[in-house]
Design goal:
Chain A is α+β, with helices and mostly antiparallel strands. Chain A is built from twelve helices and 14 strands. Chain A is globular. The chains are: A alpha+beta, B alpha+beta.
Chain lengths: 280, 165
Amino acid sequence: MFPSQFGYHKPGSVAEAVKLLQADPDAKIVAGGHSLIPAMKLRLAAPSALVDLSGIESLRGISVNGNVSIGAMTTYAQIRDSAKLKAALPVLADVAYNVGDPQVQSCGTLGGSLAHNDPAADFTAVLVALGASVKAVGPKGERTIPVEDLLVDLLTTSLAEDEVLTEIIIPGGTSAAAYEKFRHPASGYAVVGVAAAVKTGKGGVVDDAKIAITGCTSKATRAHAAEQAFIGKPLSAESIAAASAVAANGLDLNGDHYASADYRGHLVGVQTRRALERLA
Amino acid sequence: MGIPVPMATRIPVRITVNGVEYAAEVEPRLLLVHFLRDNLGLTGTHVGCDTSQCGACTVYLNGQSIKSCTVLAVQANGGEVTTIEGLAVGNDYDPVQQGFWEMHGLQCGYCTPGMIMSSHALLDRNPNPSEEEIRHALEGNLCRCTGYQNIVKAVQRAAELRAGK
Ligand SMILES: Cc1cc2nc3c(=O)[nH]c(=O)nc-3n(C[C@H](O)[C@H](O)[C@H](O)COP(=O)(O)OP(=O)(O)OC[C@H]3O[C@@H](n4cnc5c(N)ncnc54)[C@H](O)[C@@H]3O)c2cc1C
Ligand code: FES
Ligand code: FES
């Protein structure tokens, strides 16, 4: 299998990439290519040209100073192997180790995962739970978008066709975070994934919490009912059980030949409990 | 700049494969695996699924294992590729090849080049992996024959050989 014909550009700067995208509305960005190229081989996507961001050095890298900032072209492998991240926010390296397989981790990028917005992606949920935002640069300049607003619907984001996602920013202050994924045995994607992040204060009382679900909704979605069940309380067997019991409430769950919506709802509760137990 | 490239365009690339630099003009849609197999005749890299699942096409690109059926040759421009043909030194097998040979980590052999490249990449990152780490690292490589037991043993043997045991 090979894609239909297309042109190829490798800009050296974000400004140049934006110009190329403006000049050709049917051109598409390629980052790691691990969602786009399979789609092009199946002829589900047929862009007129690819704008390869891999030549833009400024889009790569990880920095930690209070906030964690990760360039859009940073690969899962770089996140997985980053000593800085393992110290500052170990959940990120942990998640990266379990995305797809090592070869996918060598290529796939954090920016690509968000821009693609696969309903079963891992980092979408993790970044929602961590309260992250992204920077995007387009013809009118740069803007900052909370990840929750970036993810609009199935495979759809609020990025314009001529905008480049450049950076992911995760605010400091998270006391603990965990991600529990129930893997599809063949594809490795999440059947249900639950990401949880908490800020705890005096006496271990949870001051703030975000829980985000992936794999069973059209996009990574907050589980507000579960959050409310333990905010203001310490994480205990009791508050965790209360949160897990209501975790699937209010979610529009989908089912398929592998797992029904009911079963996925059950898994949301189980995975929420497991994630919160890792935080306690 | 700013003008879309016409269809059927060809892009000049320089790709170093197993230490030799090759220059070619390729269509942007040419997959790296076809560049290796069809342009260079390096048929040790196999195509199993052609859908990014099986890992038979695994090679090193710039020091990391990748599935060459899911990377364009133009994306490898300026890069360094190592294929299964590039592992042995003269008549001496690489320790990972030797491990597969000694422990019989194969039956039909179709998945083997990819298995060896992935195992090699694991041992570069983690010279002394546990069984669980070996199985995790080979999740992107499918074998329809062996049931994986001897593949795990082969990687364990390769780790010993690399440590000089
Ligand atoms: C075998 C396999 C298993 C996988 N398993 C998992 C898994 O378990 N969990 C998981 O989360 N994912 C999984 N993936 C998907 C993988 O994570 C993808 O790499 C990722 O979703 C997309 O990242 P990419 O860099 O490859 O993006 P690409 O494929 O290059 O791009 C994807 C889309 O995003 C756009 N885009 C990319 N970067 C930018 C940017 N900076 N600005 C604006 N738009 C941009 C592109 O135009 C394209 O539309 C798997 C993929 C494969 C092939
Ligand atoms: S042929 Fe590339 S992953 Fe199967
Ligand atoms: S030995 Fe036959 S596919 Fe692995």
